[in-house]
Write a structure and sequence with these properties.
mainly alpha, 2 domains, 88% helix, 0% strand
Length: 493
């Protein structure tokens, strides 16, 4: 079952939660709105460059690991991937520095982007090991390395903001520090597994042909999700970028953590199953995966929309007022974005038709850009939100249609109807709570509404067996009883 794999990734996702919410809560307080806006632009630029230039080798590591292991070619697979990553980083860094130098931007942004791009070149090598551990189902080692790198990088960044004049540059210095430590720990382990392997140019070409369309598709997806920041910067300035990014991240990252958690557990299993057990068993795994996503994500998005106002206490005052206004809409945009990136995309990955996914993202990207240019000058930040919602709607339909032509991706429509019904009941009950709840302190209001919402959703979902949740619960209870039974017997003896 999916949940058993998810349990192994609990430390990783706790780290993701701490960093995701900590970044929003702490940085929006330590940095002013304009500084946070510049930080958001640098983060977006860093991820964009990484996706365009580097992601192909990371994707190939994950996709071809099981096949290389089955063919007893694992050492060569690892060595080829690591050397390719190192060459990309070494060549890419000076090119990126020249690019920054010639850009018509302020010196502050040049310095900020310099550290951001340096960190992403280093992170590339770290990511190769991370993808290898996931593909090999080394959940414990993956969790330890990832958690160490993430939390150390985050902590160092915060400390540097407090004790140095680095300001919005400090988080990127923290990323570099955390990555260096992770590489010191992990590289000796990986070098042993590369022993006897060879760097093979033909293998690199295969990986590039597979992975470069993924880079292109991720680039288009990222423009779709983060391109708004550029238009907001142009039309409204750094402060508005900070306000939009704070609200967008608080709503979207809450969902993204869940998407990543579930996908992290399922994707390596789906790849291994396809390579070893065939198509039919893989389809069953994907069907369960889609149902579980709906079971978890739909109520989460509904909950974010219901508690957007009291949840605003997490944000700094410089960005709070405008950020909470966009959060309910962003939550449902995040559902569509997540199903594009973490469900439909799996069909293209498994079929190795990654170029088709890139083609599917072209029209939504242009729709989003055109709507941003039209709507932001008229409606401000809400114009960017509406542009995102419309573009994601088109994107989800297009990617699902094209995905099913590439791979028999199940569409869990029954689970969609069940989870939607349970979410609507939850929303009705939460909205019907006494008006006195709304005048409580924000944290108390948030807690009460969250507890009531989760309780109502769980009861309704279990009553109608939404997404086969009864089977998940009974299986979970059965496993606990099985593990506890030997202990009970030992005590009795």
């Amino acid at each position: 079952m999916i949940w058993r794999q998810m349990l192994g990734y609990v430390p990783v996702n706790l780290a993701n939660i701490i960093i995701s919410f900590g970044t929003i809560a702490i940085l929006t307080r330590l940095l002013d709105g304009a500084e946070f806006g510049r930080y958001a632009l640098a983060i977006a630029g860093m991820h964009f460059i990484h996706m365009v230039a580097f992601t192909w080798v990371e994707a190939a590591m994950a996709r071809f690991y099981a096949r290389a292991k089955r063919r007893d070619e694992l050492a060569s697979h690892l060595k080829t991937s690591y050397i390719s990553a190192a060459v990309l980083g070494i060549i890419g860094l000076p090119i990126l520095m020249v690019l920054i130098y010639i850009l018509p931007i302020t010196q502050t942004m040049k310095t900020l982007l310099g550290f951001a791009f340096a960190s992403t070149c280093l992170t590339l090598i770290y990511n190769i090991g991370i993808e290898a551990h996931k593909a090999a189902h080394r959940i414990g080692r993956f969790s330890a390395i990832y958690t160490t790198q993430s939390l150390l990088g985050f902590s160092v960044g915060i400390i540097l903001i407090l004790v140095t004049p680095l300001r919005e540059t400090a988080p990127f210095v923290g990323i570099i520090a955390g990555t260096v430590l992770a590489l010191i720990i992990d590289l000796p382990f990986m070098f042993k597994r590369m022993k006897g392997g060879k760097f093979e140019k033909t293998r690199t070409r295969t990986y590039f042909v597979y992975g470069m369309p993924i880079c292109l598709s991720l680039m288009l997806s990222y423009i779709l999700s983060q391109g708004d920041l550029v238009f907001i910067k142009y039309f409204m300035g750094d402060l508005s970028v900070g306000e939009y990014n704070a609200g967008y991240n608080l709503a979207n990252r809450s969902l993204d953590v869940l998407f990543v958690w579930i996908a992290m557990a399922v994707t390596p299993i789906a790849i291994t199953t396809l390579e070893q057990d065939g198509l039919e068993k893989t389809k069953k795994i994907l069907k369960s995966y889609g149902e579980f996503l709906l079971l978890v994500i739909l109520p989460a998005a509904t909950g974010i929309a219901l508690v957007a106002e009291p949840a605003g206490f997490i944000l700094g005052e410089s960005v709070r007022a405008q950020a909470v206004k966009i959060m309910p809409w962003v939550a449902f945009a995040g559902v569509m974005n997540g199903f594009i990136a973490y469900y439909a995309q799996r069909a293209f990955m498994l079929s190795r038709k990654t170029g088709v996914f890139a083609a599917a993202m072209v029209l939504p990207m242009f729709i989003n850009m055109g709507l941003n240019i039209w709507l932001i000058p008229i409606h401000g930040l809400m114009g960017a939100v509406w542009a995102t919602l419309i573009a994601y709607s088109f994107g989800l339909v297009i990617t699902l249609l094209m995905a099913r032509r590439s791979f028999p991706l199940p569409l869990p429509l029954k689970a969609l109807l069940q989870c939607t019904f349970a979410s609507l009941v939850m929303a009705g009950v939460v909205n019907a709570l006494p008006a006195s709840v709304d005048v409580w302190p924000d944290f108390a209001e948030l807690l009460v509404k969250a507890v009531v919402g989760v309780s109502v959703y769980a009861c309704v979902a279990f009553a109608i067996n939404a997404a086969n949740c009864r089977e998940i619960v009974t299986d979970f209870i059965g496993k606990i009883k099985t593990k506890l039974k030997p202990s009970i017997v030992e005590v009795a003896q």
